[in-house]
Amino acid sequence: MSPAPPAGPLVSIILPTYNRARFLDRALRSVLGQTLPDWELLVVDDGSTDDTAERVQAVGDDRIRYIRLPRNRGVSAARNLGLRLSRGRVITFLDSDDEYLPVKLERQVAVLAAAPAEVGAVECALRIVANGAQRDQPPQLRGQDYLTFLRSQEGVNMAALLVRADLARMVGFDEGLTAREDVDFMARLLCRTSLAFIDDPLVVIHNDAPVRLSAGAVLLRGLEQLARKYDQEQHASRALRVDWNHRLALAYLQQGRLRDARRALGRAIAAQPLGVVRWGLYLSTLLGRPGATLARRVYLTGGRVKQHFRGQVAGRRLWGRNPLSRST
Question: What is the phi/psi pair of residue 122, to 5°?
Answer without folding.
Answer: -130, 130
